[in-house]
Every structure is written in structure tokens, then in C-alpha cells.
Recover the amino acids of this structure.
């Protein structure tokens, strides 16, 4: 004997009914009516059910936009019980609390001993990325960074990785938001105009704490500029790429070897800090071929506990950068700032060349630093004790390595292929370190695709050396202060 | 309904009513779409695998409600983020949810690219003909004549006309399923529910990209009651945006994606790393008279092979354990105009890789010789192609070797090897690296083209001989 099981009838939770009335017209049995009484808790007027003729067809449930407005379930009301999440915690904290995944750690896999490669800068960086465990590349062709992307297009399929030519740099950085958000190592190569387009996405990545590596092969600007080398992106890279409280580590390689080494390092740091990392090189370095020694290991990445991966363990995770409550947003900013402070504390890197006895200090990064190294050798032959200070991190500026050598210097010469963007970083770092009386700073600058030349650096350093009285006769900071006060 | 969180803790810390009620206005279509999506995920058993990409707009906070992996994307970028997730974990079920301002305006590039790629993801496009969150502005889907905050006189001639996204997406080859549904009555709701379920099912089966456009009500900005808004969608939107299946093909599933490779030997091979020591031939850094960091410039027309010669030189030097660099001239001039390469070979470290004042110049044509000859340091070496340079400029400050690169190459039957003739000449003229070093580099470069090896070796040898003959002639 067939028995028709009685279908459950709907239950209304008046607190969660918005009185929209969509359920009313949906009921073929006219069981639902517009309400007349304002609900004290919501200020809205919930509908009223008269289920005498209800056949449990569920059509009203299909019509209710509220997850808990109409319900099949138990009749005990879901009340507005007190919150069990303290009000000062933000969403990120809530997500972290729910987290059940365990981090699968990265593994360093030993590599066979290999002969040095002879490759150009962009290739070295791409190979560094592969060795760092990056198997996802997203990019948009832009000279002079494209070589790196092309090599990735060739090699990644051989490692069952993915190369995606994105529809734009805007899409590129958002693909990275996705893959990085899933906890994997991904990267892009771009060049200045493309980098500008990525700023929006970088800000979102920073806000949502999603790692990723952007290699910017800087070219001349502003605007379309040309494809000659420049360092004109230092300002946007170091002053915060994208809107809001943004900051990333910015590495400045000077050789193909460093293109590989620093790209590898960038991946580790991106995941260590859950923040994008920039590798900023100039168009020249991208094209320079040189000797590249290979590391003794490669990385087989694990999977971080925070990944939005798409399995049970990672289900509670969330990536977002919107915190509507101002106090939450401020707290999140404070957290990011603490992270940046940690980077300033731990991540400064610099290379000092012939600075021990120097009294003229050249400051330069990327390819200009190599030219400057040549200039140091020439100056020394001419009897001028020149040295080179080369920031490897443009941000944080490695002021800690600079401060001790500075007092010995008669003059500082900043050499760069930009309108003083590196010098601004230097001056800002001096100011933050309360070093208010540095030696006189002069500079050699080019832009528009022209690099500083060695003879210019030599001439400028000579002139600075000759123009400046020795350090001993310069007024001390205290004297200067006394003079200003009197 | 368990795909919805028990409590909406993320909704304003789950305080009070917000723990169980959405933030949507009464009668808003989004809540319905959420419910159908939630039930589809539930009925297909996909909750653990789901990654939901929330957009910008009224549904920016979709992650308040859905107990799945959640990520929130920038305005218009949700499909790009979705692609990133799907490629990262092909086993995840990725849903990109967008409204009309987000998808059909700022995000056009991203949605078309994702659709054209065709990865198995599911896009839910909620079209309510207006910008909700920013306060009722005109959307690309707003009907002509409708008054909005940014079309106070009604959508007019300067505003374009409503975009039929489902039809546009269906034009592409890759999408497998495109349907437009509505929510205004029970029948439509059943269809909407089914369409969303089908979109997810197709993804589960790895069939491809699906796109479900939902005509939804925004009573608030239409300034209508929910019931009137339903009627408005039916009367005003449906004629503009016809309902129904626009595309439904059932292709073979996407192949299963193999795991990325992290095998060290394979990686070593792929990056071109050679094991074992390279053979060395040099006994120390050569005494060329140019010190421990020798600068060489090779210059000619594009196609002369200056860059290849430069690279061979740099490779050979590095295999000998020295440092070397090569900078090509690049950009427009490398496509046909002048092409020059700066090379440095140094005992331990190349300081400055540019060569504005080279020790050695190899010139393949007259303009290069005229331009760079005078820049060579006094006492330096110049080797040039005598075949094409009949009247060299006077260069009294350097040692000059005039070698007919092109003529020799022609005699060997292949003009393209003139740069290898030049390499041989460079070797003999400077002694910077042993012959065998350079020949080893040539052999490595021809590893996959052994048929050209003999020709290149001959070319190299002839270059060497030509310079040696010149040297002998000078002595006698
Ligand atoms: S279940 Fe069916 S009959 Fe019962 S109230 Fe709902 S719509 Fe009416
Ligand atoms: S559809 Fe839901 S929210 Fe709207 S009136 Fe009915 S029960 Fe209330
Ligand atoms: S503004 Fe419109 S789309 Fe947004 S929640 Fe309200 S009704 Fe829904």
C-alpha cells in the first residue's frame, strides 16, 4: 500500500523575514498574507502564514530571498542570540579562527651539480622562478620584458605548468590574485606602462595578503616613452604600489646572477610575509647576458594553511580586502604596518664595494651600479678613494648598512637612470634615521632611455671630491644646530 | 541549505539579526540566486570543492553567507581571479558571481577573455539593469529611456544601448552553456534554479565554461515594491533580454590536468643545465695587454651575426671559468638597422658591461667601422670585413686587421658563416681565448644541427688563418 509521506510545511522566522511579499504570490493555496504588525526587532512587517490548506509544495521557499526567512526546519525560532565573535576582531581574524588546514611546508629538493648558464637577465629571472617552484605564469607582452614571458611559455608546459597570456596587465595581476590566493607560487614579467596597470591589483593583493612576484623591467617614460632602460618606477614601487597603505619588498638586481637569485628569494619572501614582492630591473639588465651559477636546490612548494584551495580543509578560508567597519579597516592597516615594520627591520640588503677606506661614496642600483663599479676602479687609479653603496632592496632602503660608512665620506654621488627617484629614497631613509647632516649629495641622472655613463660618473665624483672640504672641517651636526638656533 | 553558514558571523560580526539575515533589500533578486546556488552546490555535493569569487557591488559580501572557500575580487575582475583559482586547482569548483556594472562595464575584458579561454568555470551574471551598491546609476544593461542617477533625463543617445551579454558570450566558440533566466514567477524560478545547477554540473564534468544570466529585481533603485519590480522585469526587461537557452553544447570533457612537475632532474634538463665540468683549455687569463677586464664591441647591420658571435665569445669565456657579459643593442634597430654588441671578458668580475671605449672592435660594415673605430682605446685592435669596406678610415692609434669575412664565407658556400670567420679572426688577432675554447662554444651551439658543424669549423679556421697571414706579412 503506497503511502504519501506528508511533505513538511514551511516555518516562518519573523525576525528574518523582510516582508518583501515574494512568497505571497508564489503560494498556489493562498496560505500567505501580508502582515499588519511591525516586528519590534527589525522594524519590518513580516508576512503571516495560515497553513490550513498548505500542501507543502515548497514554492514559497523557492520564492523567499532570505536564507532563514522561510524554513522547513524545526520550529524553534532562531533568535538574535548574543554574538559569539567579539566585536573587535575583523573578518580576517574570524577566518583564521575557523581555519582547520595545516600548512604543508615547502621542500628544498637538491639539484644535480650544473654548469653555469650563460643567459640574459630576463631568462635568468624566469629560470629562478622555475627553480623557486613557480608553475603558473600570467603576463601580457610588453617590451622589453617579453623575453622572460616567452621563455616561460616555452618551458612551463614541459613542467606541466601553466602559461597564460592574459587579456591585459589588469587581468594578469588578478589571475595572480586567484592563483596566489589558492596558495601557489605565480609571477609575471612586465614593463613600466604595464606595471602602472597592475597597481590596482597589487593593492588588492596587499590588502588581502596574497603573495606573488612581479618582475618589472623598467623602461623610459612617462607615457608610452620608449623601450630604452630607465629606473623611473622606483617611486611607485617604493612609495607604495597602489592605493591605500601599501608596501612591498622591492629588489634591485644588478646582474643576471642576481636576477635569478633575487627572483628565487622574492618567492620565499612573498610567502613569508603574505605580500607581493617586486623585482625591479632596468631594460638593460633584462638584455644583458652573463654568467649565472645555479643553486644547489630547487623548491617544491607546499600549501599554506590560509589558501583558498577548494577542499574541505581550506573551506573556511577567505581572501578579502574590504572591511566596511572603519575600526576593522584601521586594525587591518595596523597589522599591515606591523608587517612592513618587520620588513624594514629584517629585509634590508645592500652591497658595499671598496667602501672601507673610501671618502667619496657612489650610490647606485641595477645596471647603473655596475657602471659605477667600473667608475670606482677608474677613480681609484686616479688616486681618488671612491666606493660604491648598492642598495639591493630599494625598499626597505638599506640605511642600516649605509649609516656606519657615511661619516667617513666627503661626498655622495647618486647615479641613476631616473629623475632622482633613488636619491629621494636615500634622502627619506636618512631623514627617518635622523641623519640630518649627511655629506653633500650630488648626482648623475639620465632618463628617457639613456644610462649614466662611466666617464660622467668619474667626472662627477672627481668634482664632488675636489669641491668638498674634508669631513673634519665640515661643521658637525651639533654646530649646525647651534648655528640654526642662534 | 547548509551551504549557508549557520550564523553570518562575517556580517557585522554576526551581531543581532545580522547573524541570520542578508544585507539585501527586501525583495532583492540576489537572495534568490544565492539560495539556488547554495542548493545546487549542496545537491551536487560540491561544498568542499567550491571556491566562490565575490564581485564588487551589492554582492561584495557574498562570503558572509556561503560556507565555501571564498575570495573577493576587484570591480570587474572576478572572472580573471576565477581563472587563477581554476588553474591552481583544476579540481576546485570555481564560481564567479557578478552584477551588470561589474561584468558588463568595467569587467568586459576579463569576462570575454575568461569565456574565450573556456576553462570549466561557472559564471553567474545577475542583471538587474542598474548599479545597486553605488546608488542606482545607469548600467550597460539599463533600458533606453530609464531614468537613473546618472541618466536623469532617461538613458539616451549618448549612453549606448543595453548590452545583451548572454548573446555576446554565446558568440564565442568556447562557452558550452549559456542561458538567460528570470525570477519573476514560480515557473521562471524553477528554470533559474535548474540552470544554475546545470552550470555547476557541467563544471563538475569538466565540460567547459558556462554562463547563466539572471534577470533580477532591484526594487530599491527601481523605486518599486518587490511585486511591482517582478512585473517590471517581466514587462520591461524580458523583451530586451529574451529568456531561454542561447547555447548548449556537450563537448568532450577537458582532459585531466597532470600535477606540476618538481622532479629535479627534469627541471635541470628543462632549464638547460648541463651536468659535469666543461672542458677548459686556457691556462690562466690571457695576457692581451688589455688587463683583466677586456671590452669588445662587435658591430654591423642586423643579420650580420654580430650578436651570435658575441654570445659565442661570452659562452666560451664563462666555460673557461672567467666572467663575461654581453649586451645587445635592442629595439627597432635590431630589426634590420645597425646591430652592435658589447662584450666584456674579465678574469674575475666584469665591472661595467657597456663598452663605450672597447679594447677590441669587430666591424662588419663601413658605418660601424666609421662610428666605432675612433672609440677604440689607443693600442687596441680592430678587425673588419674587407669584403665590404674598401676604404677604411685612418685609425693610426690601433692595430688593424682587414679580413674578408664575407668573401671567405662565400668561398665556403654559405655567407651566413661570415660571423664565425670573424670569430676566428678575433681569436687570432687578440689571443683572448684559446681556439679550442671558442670551437667548443661553436660545437655546443650546433648541438642540434650537426650538419653545419664542419662548415662552421672551417669558417672559424679560415678566419684564424687570414689574421695569421696578415701577421706574417707584417713581420716580413
Ligand atoms: S508550501 Fe506551498 S502551499 Fe504551503 S505555504 Fe508554501 S507555497 Fe503555500
Ligand atoms: S519571501 Fe521571505 S522575506 Fe519575503 S515576505 Fe516572504 S518570508 Fe518574508
Ligand atoms: S540595491 Fe538593489 S541590488 Fe542592491 S541589495 Fe538593494 S535591491 Fe538588491
Amino acid at each position: 500500500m503506497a503511502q504519501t509521506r506528508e511533505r513538511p510545511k514551511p516555518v516562518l522566522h519573523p525576525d528574518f523575514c523582510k516582508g518583501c511579499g515574494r512568497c505571497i504570490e508564489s503560494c498556489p493555496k493562498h496560505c500567505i498574507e501580508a502582515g499588519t504588525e511591525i516586528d519590534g526587532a527589525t522594524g519590518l512587517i513580516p508576512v503571516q502564514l495560515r497553513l490550513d490548506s498548505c500542501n507543502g509544495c515548497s514554492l514559497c521557499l523557492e520564492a523567499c530571498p532570505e536564507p532563514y526567512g522561510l524554513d522547513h526546519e524545526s520550529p524553534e525560532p532562531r533568535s538574535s542570540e548574543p554574538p559569539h565573535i567579539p566585536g573587535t576582531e575583523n573578518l580576517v581574524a574570524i577566518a583564521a579562527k575557523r581555519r582547520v588546514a595545516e600548512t604543508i611546508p615547502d621542500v628544498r629538493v637538491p639539484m644535480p651539480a650544473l654548469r653555469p648558464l650563460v643567459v640574459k637577465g630576463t631568462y635568468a629571472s624566469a629560470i629562478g622562478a622555475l627553480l623557486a617552484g613557480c608553475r603558473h605564469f600570467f603576463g601580457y607582452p610588453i617590451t622589453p620584458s617579453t623575453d622572460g614571458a616567452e621563455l616561460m611559455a616555452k618551458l612551463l608546459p614541459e613542467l606541466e605548468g601553466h602559461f597564460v597570456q592574459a587579456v591585459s596587465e589588469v587581468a594578469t595581476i588578478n589571475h595572480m590574485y586567484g592563483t596566489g590566493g589558492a596558495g601557489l607560487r605565480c609571477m609575471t614579467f612586465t614593463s613600466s606602462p604595464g606595471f602602472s596597470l597592475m597597481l590596482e591589483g597589487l593593492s588588492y593583493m596587499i590588502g588581502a595578503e596574497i603573495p606573488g612576484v612581479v618582475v618589472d623591467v623598467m623602461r623610459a617614460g612617462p607615457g608610452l616613452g620608449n623601450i630604452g632602460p630607465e629606473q623611473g618606477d622606483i617611486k611607485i614601487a617604493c612609495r607604495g604600489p597602489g592605493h591605500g597603505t601599501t608596501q612591498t619588498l622591492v629588489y634591485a638586481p644588478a646582474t643576471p646572477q642576481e636576477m635569478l637569485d633575487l627572483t628565487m628569494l622574492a618567492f620565499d619572501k612573498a610567502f613569508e610575509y603574505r605580500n607581493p614582492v617586486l623585482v625591479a630591473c632596468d631594460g638593460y639588465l633584462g638584455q644583458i647576458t652573463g654568467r649565472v651559477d645555479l643553486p644547489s636546490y630547487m623548491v617544491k612548494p607546499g600549501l599554506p594553511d590560509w589558501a583558498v584551495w577548494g577542499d574541505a580543509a581550506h573551506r573556511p578560508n577567505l581572501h578579502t580586502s574590504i572591511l566596511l567597519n572603519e575600526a576593522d579597516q584601521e586594525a587591518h592597516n595596523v597589522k599591515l604596518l606591523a608587517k612592513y615594520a618587520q620588513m624594514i627591520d629584517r629585509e634590508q640588503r645592500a652591497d658595499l664595494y671598496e667602501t672601507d677606506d673610501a671618502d667619496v661614496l657612489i650610490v647606485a642600483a641595477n645596471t647603473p651600479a655596475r657602471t659605477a663599479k667600473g667608475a670606482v676602479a677608474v677613480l681609484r687609479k686616479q688616486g681618488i678613494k671612491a666606493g660604491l653603496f648598492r642598495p639591493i632592496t630599494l625598499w626597505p632602503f638599506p640605511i642600516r648598512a649605509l649609516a656606519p660608512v657615511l661619516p667617513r665620506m666627503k661626498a655622495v654621488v647618486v647615479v641613476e637612470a631616473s629623475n632622482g627617484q633613488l636619491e629621494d629614497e636615500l634622502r627619506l631613509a636618512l631623514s627617518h634615521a635622523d641623519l640630518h647632516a649627511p655629506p653633500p649629495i650630488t648626482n648623475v641622472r639620465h632618463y628617457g632611455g639613456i644610462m649614466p655613463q662611466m666617464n660622467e660618473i668619474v667626472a662627477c665624483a672627481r668634482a664632488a671630491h675636489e669641491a668638498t672640504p674634508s669631513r673634519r672641517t665640515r661643521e658637525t651636526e651639533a654646530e649646525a644646530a647651534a648655528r640654526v638656533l642662534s | 541549505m547548509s551551504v549557508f553558514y549557520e550564523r553570518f558571523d562575517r556580517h557585522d560580526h554576526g551581531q543581532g539579526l545580522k547573524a541570520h539575515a542578508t544585507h539585501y533589500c527586501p525583495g532583492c533578486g540576489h537572495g534568490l540566486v544565492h539560495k539556488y546556488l547554495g542548493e545546487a552546490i549542496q545537491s551536487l555535493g560540491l561544498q568542499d570543492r567550491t571556491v566562490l569569487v565575490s564581485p564588487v557591488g551589492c554582492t561584495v559580501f557574498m562570503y558572509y553567507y556561503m560556507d565555501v572557500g571564498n575570495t573577493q575580487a576587484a570591480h570587474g575582475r572576478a572572472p580573471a581571479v576565477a581563472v587563477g583559482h581554476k588553474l591552481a586547482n583544476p579540481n576546485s569548483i570555481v564560481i564567479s558571481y557578478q552584477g551588470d556594472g561589474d561584468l558588463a562595464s568595467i569587467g568586459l575584458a576579463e569576462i570575454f577573455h575568461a569565456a574565450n579561454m573556456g576553462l570549466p568555470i561557472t559564471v553567474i551574471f545577475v542583471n538587474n539593469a542598474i548599479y545597486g551598491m553605488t546608488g542606482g546609476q545607469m548600467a550597460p544593461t539599463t533600458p533606453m529611456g530609464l531614468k537613473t542617477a546618472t541618466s536623469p533625463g532617461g538613458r539616451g543617445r549618448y549612453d549606448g544601448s543595453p548590452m545583451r551579454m548572454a548573446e555576446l558570450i554565446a558568440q564565442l566558440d568556447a562557452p558550452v552553456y549559456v542561458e538567460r533566466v528570470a525570477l519573476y514567477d514560480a515557473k521562471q524560478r524553477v528554470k533559474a534554479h535548474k540552470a544554475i545547477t546545470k552550470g555547476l554540473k557541467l563544471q563538475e564534468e569538466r565540460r567547459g565554461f558556462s554562463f547563466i544570466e539572471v534577470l533580477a529585481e532591484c526594487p530599491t533603485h527601481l523605486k518599486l515594491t518587490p511585486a511591482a519590480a517582478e512585473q517590471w522585469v517581466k514587462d520591461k526587461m524580458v523583451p530586451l533580454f529574451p529568456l531561454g537557452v542561447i547555447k548548449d553544447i556537450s563537448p568532450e570533457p577537458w582532459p585531466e590536468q597532470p600535477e606540476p612537475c618538481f622532479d629535479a632532474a627534469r627541471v635541470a634538463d628543462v632549464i638547460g643545465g648541463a651536468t659535469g665540468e666543461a672542458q677548459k683549455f686556457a691556462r690562466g687569463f690571457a695576457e692581451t695587454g688589455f688587463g683583466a677586464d677586456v671590452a669588445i664591441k662587435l658591430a654591423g647591420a642586423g643579420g650580420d651575426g654580430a650578436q651570435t658571435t658575441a654570445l659565442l665569445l661570452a659562452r666560451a669565456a664563462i666555460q673557461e671559468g672567467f666572467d663575461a657579459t654581453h649586451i645587445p643593442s635592442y629595439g627597432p634597430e635590431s630589426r634590420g638597422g645597425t646591430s652592435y654588441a658589447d662584450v666584456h671578458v674579465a678574469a674575475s668580475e666584469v665591472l661595467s658591461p657597456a663598452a663605450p671605449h672597447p679594447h677590441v672592435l669587430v666591424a662588419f660594415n663601413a658605418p660601424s667601422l666609421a662610428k666605432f673605430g675612433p672609440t677604440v682605446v689607443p693600442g687596441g685592435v680592430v678587425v673588419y670585413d674587407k669584403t665590404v669596406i674598401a676604404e677604411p678610415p685612418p685609425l693610426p692609434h690601433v692595430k688593424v686587421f682587414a679580413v674578408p669575412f664575407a668573401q671567405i664565407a662565400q668561398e665556403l658556400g654559405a655567407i651566413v658563416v661570415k660571423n664565425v670567420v670573424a670569430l676566428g679572426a678575433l681569436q687570432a688577432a687578440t689571443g683572448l681565448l684559446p681556439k679550442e675554447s671558442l670551437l667548443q662554444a661553436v660545437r655546443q651551439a650546433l648541438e642540434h644541427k650537426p650538419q653545419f658543424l664542419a662548415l662552421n669549423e672551417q669558417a672559424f679556421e679560415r678566419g684564424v688563418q687570414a689574421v695569421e697571414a696578415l701577421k706574417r706579412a707584417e713581420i716580413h
Remarks:
- Chain A has a mean pLDDT of 91.
- The longest strand of chain A covers residues 212-218.
- Chain A touches chain B through 123 residues (CB under 8 Å).
- Chain A has three domains: 10-72, 107-300+317-346, 351-481.
